[in-house]
Hints:
The complex is a heterodimer of chains A (about 450) and B (about 450).
Chain A: H1 13-16, E1 49-57, E2 63-72, E3 75-80, E4 89-92, E5 97-100, E6 102-107, H2 145-152, E7 155-160, E8 168-176, E9 193-198, H3 201-208, H4 217-246, H5 258-267, E10 271-276, H6 280-293, E11 299-301, H7 310-315, E12 319-322, H8 340-345, E13 352-354, H9 365-378, H10 385-388, H11 394-400, E14 417-420, E15 431-436, E16 439-443
Parallel strand pairs in A: 1-4, 1-5, 6-7, 9-10, 10-11, 11-12, 12-13
Antiparallel strand pairs in A: 1-2, 2-3, 5-14, 7-8, 8-9, 14-15, 15-16
Helix pairs in contact in A: 4-5
Chain B: H1 8-16, E1 34-42, E2 49-58, E3 61-65, E4 79-81, E5 86-89, E6 91-96, H2 133-138, E7 142-147, E8 156-164, E9 172-182, H3 191-225, H4 240-249, E10 254-259, H5 262-275, E11 278-283, H6 291-296, E12 301-303, H7 322-329, E13 333-335, H8 347-356, H9 361-367, H10 370-376, E14 391-394, E15 405-410, E16 413-415, H11 420-429
Parallel strand pairs in B: 1-4, 1-5, 6-7, 9-10, 10-11, 11-12, 12-13
Antiparallel strand pairs in B: 1-2, 2-3, 5-14, 7-8, 8-9, 14-15, 15-16
Helix pairs in contact in B: 3-4, 3-5, 8-9
Pfam family, one (chain A): Amidohydro_1
Keywords (chain A): Signal
Protein name (chain A): Amidohydrolase
Amino acid sequence: MRKITLPLLAAGVSVTLTACLDTQQQDAKVTIKKNPYPSSYQPLAQQQTLIKNATVLTGTGEKLDNTDVLLQGGKIAQLGKGISASGAMEVDGTGKWLTPGIIDVHSHLGVYPSPSVGSHQDGNEMTSPNTSEVWAEHSVWPQDPGFEAARAGGVTSLQILPGSANLFGGRGVTLRNVPSVTMQGMKFPDAPYGLKMACGENPKRVYGDRKELPSTRMGNMAGYRAAWAEATEYKRAWDKYERDYAAGKNPQAPERDLTLDTLKGVLDGEILIHNHCYKAEEMAMMIDLGKEFNYHSGTFHHAIEAYKIAEPLAENGNCAAMWPDWWGFKMEAYDMVQENVAIVDAVKNSCAIVHSDSDSTIQRLNQEAGKILYRAKESGFALTEADAVGWITLNPAKSLGISDKTGSVEVGKNADVVLWNRNPFSVYAQAEQVFVDGAKVYDRIDEKYQAKSDFLLGQK
Amino acid sequence: MKLLKTPLSRVALFLSAGISAATLAIGSASAQPLAITHAKVHTVTGQGVLTDATVIIEDGKILAINPQALPAGLAAERIIDARGKTITPGFINSFNQLGLVEVSAVGESQDSREKKADITFDPSLAFNPRSSLIPYSRKGGITRNLVAPGGGDSIFKGQAFAVDLSGEFDSVVKNALGVYVVVGGKSKGSRAFDLQTLWHKLEDRQKALAKEKTKQEAKEKANKDDKSKKDNNGDKEPKRDELILDALLAGEKPLFVKANRASDLLQLIKLKQAFKLDLVLVGAADAALVAKQLAAAEIPVVINALRNLPESFDAMHTSLTSPATLTAAGVKVVLNTSGDTHNLYQLRFTAGNAVANGLSATQALASITANAADVFHLDAGRIAVGQAADLVLWSGDPFELSTRVEKMWIAGEEVGTSSRQDALRERYISKSTLPKAYVK
């Protein structure tokens, strides 16, 4: 990890030495652009759409039978029975189910795209235990055919994360799942950034093999703590600069450090933590680490052992993003239970998420949630489809800091919805129509709404 | 003798199965028979689905279907009333490392690979029937599995073997069942060399065999002329790899080739035709492009119905509809799960997804039972008299997420599905004043 310099008084001696004088003329204020690669996303062409008589799972725990949903101006305009809207395109939802658009909080589409060839391995900057300076968005290949496949599975938003080789892997980015030539064209407007952290076996293996810190779990913790200590100093230096400048002084801005910019963003509460962390004892330590350095430890991903600490997770406001059944590929994934999500979900104020981390299962997050729903019911959990849908819609939206905009079928929210040909927790269920901001982005029957990646075009 | 309500049609079925009434006098048989009654039986045979049917199991085999009466003196606890629920043959998965790998990243628990492994590599010696993956896999209704070697640097990865999922120490059903070869694009080198290696290996052995045969005939002729000479003196014993190649060339052992690109599949069709092999293609991502040729050459394919991304330049045309396309073209399709062995239980969901994408439910069921049994030469996969009694009683549609296994039998023995994962769940949802470690 780089040592930061605090050149508050070191440079520009003749001018700035007198900066402490109250009457000094100020240099232009140094500010760091927080969003230098801004979203250029525009909703696709849209038409007012009225879906009639569907079974609606709202994502907020409700199931509404024979209900109409009006999508207008990119928003869910009305929800109820007997809605009519002149000029709206009507879709008969009889026998069909409508859910919020699916949100995957953990994807590597675009950074580990198909085809999975060496030139496409852009998701893991395995060169230092702390690469908080890298941003996944700078690796995203928007032509990854995986985006189309995920869209056919009802995925409307997804977070692209860097990989898990490092203690700090870099920034993640939240995307709208729409076809675009540029990453910016997919970027979810105003979604917070995420910082990927990783516990456990990956960092200690990658760096341990190089005889570098960390080679142990205690080395992992030492690495996090050293980084947060540096980030704290960096933030203090910037805060002082801001304070002094506001006081009319002419301080010198701290030297810019891209790595620490990201960590400072977390300490400032602007960047959310997404922590690859499997084991109960490690998640508990990561919660304490957040408290030691005064930030929130965010969402635990791949949280195989979350069921062992369901209560502390809820008490501390941590989300846990889990699979129904992946296990056994390493020791930290050995204690899998299929009801993990349900056990976490059963605690008050919990935030249980089903995530994919896969270009294949992202296409079937509904089935992934279904597996949990039914296994948990067999084990005595009182759960319904209305509960299970929140694991792949509203809870991931909360985790990503976008639940004010999407994640549920509620009037005023973005019209991100999926119309399924049947109960979405059936193995036979298929998304028939998918809408993002009220615009149809996928239609299983109408080829006009089936985008195809440049890469696949013309392949014989 | 407890009498069943037996419609005439059932009697007819029973008789058509070729069992005489005398066979039913089994009171003196060594093992206690078991009767499953009132079941919806998916036979995966020409008999189709039998409703309100009865299946009698004895000595690990299916003794009778819809007999005129239950065996005499059958104890009440040996009669299972299925109450109209579905019974299928146990499902068969394949080409994974079940029992060879406990935790993939823990080298010491990994026995599927060896750098120097070649065609003779027989990993069945390492099979661990007590692996925690096995009871968990039974949750998917899997009763048998074809385990494939991970192999080493050679294209010949070694020999596949079949196991049942009873968890018993004798659960390797058949070792050295077939040879597993992998060809296709690789980061260094050419697939042409690998295809050539495979071809040459077979061709060289075939020539050597022909030569030996000529020599042998000449010798026999000479021996006939000179009766004083002893036969076969000084003949070389074939080497281990040669014996395996001989079995392939004689069509006694299947050759399983993992390949994906359509052009590779066409090369392998030629290989089959040249050497009259019992060839099975595995992976076969782009098989739908050459479905007609595969059907004409009678080559079965083992595919994962969930592969649908252009994951490499060998797999540019994978599709969720491939199982349906291939089946419609007349290819015998076997579905499997690819990826990590730990979730081979998902086979039934794979089949369900294939149905959602155009395969009929009947074809999907056959693809994980009868087709697999035929292609892997296993005595299983159908509910028919004389077959191994691998049966699963389901709470509903076997492919649905909401369904679970209620009961299952492997070679006639009832097995449970309770796994280590269930014990962990129970521990952590139970209430206790002591730490969870005391909950057992």
